[in-house]
Design brief:
homodimer, about 210 residues, alpha/beta, Rossmann fold, 5-stranded parallel sheet, disordered N terminus
Chain lengths: ~210, ~210
């Protein structure tokens, strides 16, 4: 930090995360959604965000749509690139955590080691892993983007669930059955956890 | 999941930048501070942020301290790495812009082409380039981090102003004379511009 001793007025001012949290009237946190393609991670994250917003919270969703074409546009899907992709997303989420936002990340993030790396970047209370559990067959039946069909035809290499493994979380803070329960039920489960953990307050007004 | 019985509810909800701006009661924007090492970019950005915070605005400062050791920890100072550094910072700032934050970036960003790249990522009204103008001799005299001394001794390669060029902005939205004016004066000039451009409101209460 540049701090010229010659000018006492040129000192560093710092707005801390704590101050931002006070301003926002809620804690910041990282909600790390993981699960197969088609399990509903991004949909759930956006639906949770909508509820948070309506309650006056500050949040942001990071998903393939806004990260893969921008910050990570230079990365492919090799193991190394996938690792780097998750690393950047983790660092990005950490900055947004500092900025006072409830940061929701919605990426397959199939490997335990990478999710652990993301978790290790922040304090234990700041990282909430949410496993969107949904049978491969259900995801494949939905096949919203037609990706499973392509993967089965061999047109996509290293496709999670087909030609690349998914390692289910063993210590997720929350498991939501996105293949069984309605979106609304899943949203309520996430909000309940956020209240339990003191990230948001109240039962009617989330923040 | 008994397929899309509840599928109609599994649609994407989206909280837009416009909604966030309404919630925050100010526009979001990128304030891109550029200038020599020691010109006071980071100090000024943090001081502006303090004023914004006290007025109830949402903002965040990106600088070497929180980016170089994290998101860009894998990058060095070669031309290619510097370009990639600025590219990532630009993408990061763009996401924070979407998140409704007044995003202040404080990096030397010596090359016009890279600043132009950052500018091109967003709409013209969203990018405010602020040139922190300060003589090399003043920066070198301050030498807060002892970097100029090291650079003069040849211990740092490609050091801007010594062994690598700095290309001053030709169309900066604002020039602040950080080598001449007090921090408070510079802060007021930035806030004045933000009010002029309708990013923040009022004259007493910034937001």
């Amino acid at each position: 930090m540049s701090e010229p001793t010659s000018n006492i007025k040129w000192h560093a001012a710092t707005i801390t995360r704590e101050l931002r949290q006070q301003q926002n009237q809620h804690r910041s946190a990282i909600l790390w959604f993981t699960g197969l393609s088609g399990a509903g991670k991004s949909t759930l994250a956006h639906a949770v965000e909508q509820e948070l917003f309506l309650s006056g919270c500050r949040s942001f969703v990071l998903d393939g749509d806004n990260v893969r074409h921008g910050l990570c546009a230079d990365l492919g899907f090799s193991d190394a690139d996938r690792r780097e992709n998750i690393r950047r997303i983790s660092e990005l989420a950490k900055l947004m955590l500092e900025a006072g936002l409830i940061t929701l990340t919605a990426f397959i993030s199939p490997f335990s080691a990478e999710r652990q790396m993301a978790r290790n970047l922040v304090a234990p209370a700041d990282f909430i892993e949410i496993y969107c559990r949904c049978d491969l067959s259900t995801c494949e039946q939905r096949d919203v983007k037609g990706l499973y069909q392509k993967a089965r035809r061999g047109e996509i290499a290293h496709f999670t669930g087909i030609s690349s493994p998914y390692q289910p979380p063993e210590q997720a803070e929350l498991i939501v059955d996105t293949g069984r329960d309605s979106l609304e039920e899943c949203v309520q489960q996430v909000l309940h956890l956020l209240r339990q953990r003191g990230i948001i307050q109240g039962s009617n007004n989330a923040c």
